[in-house]
Amino acid sequence: MFFKDNPFYLLGVHTTDSGDRMEEALREKLHRAEGEAERKRLLDAAYVLQKSVKRSGAEFFWLPGLSKEEALGLVERTVQGQELSGSDFLSLPPLSRVILAMNGLFYGSAGSRLLLQEICANYGHIHPAEAAALFNGDRRLAGMPQLRNASHVEMWKRELPHEMVEAAREAGKDRKLSDQAHLLAELRKEKDTFPWQLLVIDYEERSRKERERLEKDLDYGLSLSDRHFPQGLLLAKDTLAHLKDLSEPLCIRSGQWPLETAFQRVRREVTALWDRGRKEDSRVMAETFLPFFREWPDFAERAEKDRKDMAEGKRPEEVPSGKGPAWQNVPSTFRRIPEVERKKEKKVPLFVLFLVFFAVMTLCYIFSR
Q1: Could you report the per-residue pLDDT of 286-310, keeping only the tens digit for each?
Q2: Which residues lie below 8 Å from residue 236, measured CB to CB, with a gap of 6+?
Q3: Cα dihedral 68, 69, 71, 77 sign
Q4: pTM of this prediction?
């Protein structure tokens, strides 16, 4: 739930407003409402704020704990897409900081890095008991019934990840994937937080087609270098640079695997040129491409070994794609797991038990006479 869909926003009230003030605001809104759909929406909003559990959802996605003027001022600036500064978050509790930053992303406020950082840094500090106490503080001022069960807050918290992803997608819809990748990479200090990992998973899915296209373009550039070496080298270099930029958040999260295919493809082409007797071209290609992979120890070690081998006039060695089972080959590793035979329990048929029981009872009857 974002600000414009929140019952408090629809009625123009705050969590500290009394029931009488809400009724007054409802009458004013209904008087100015245009059409039956808007009237129904206003009545539904008023109904939600009268019910304790439903109201807690509106409170969760609002800014409780602030004065009415301060809260409505921040909300209005946010829905208009105005920039939010760090000082706007200083006095807010963790829940309100996350909600304000999330809405800032959704409504296009400038400073996405600050907003994402606020979400990542404060999400783990949202505790249902503390949030419920915050709600109840405003309810006492409003004369509303207290929220007695903090589990309702936990229920609303479970909806928060979906809202965060939607807000991030809305913020990035007009941005290039490379800009989104750079923004996530800038927040690498937050890589252990749940929001950062969630946003990277979403980015991975949205960038999959583009990364697959770049891998195909890299293959084309490398194959072109066999016939037109300078042109193919330039095309493959630009493609690899772009692919590396798009893969940076995934590499921060999971290591080198997003670039494993590209690295192996480059090494195969370097070796193929060497085998065809074009040793100088092979050296040039290695010096051009292998530095792209020096950030990762396994790649750097292999690249340095190749460079030394070629400097000594040796052919680069054939090596497996990784020290362990690669992520692409997980299904093939299942064959290495030993099978465990399960012995089925021998079950005695029911009619056999009945026959034994009948024989015992017959013998007892005979001997008792």
Answers
A1: 888 888 888 888 888 888 888 888 8
A2: 218, 221, 222, 224, 225, 289
A3: positive
A4: 0.76
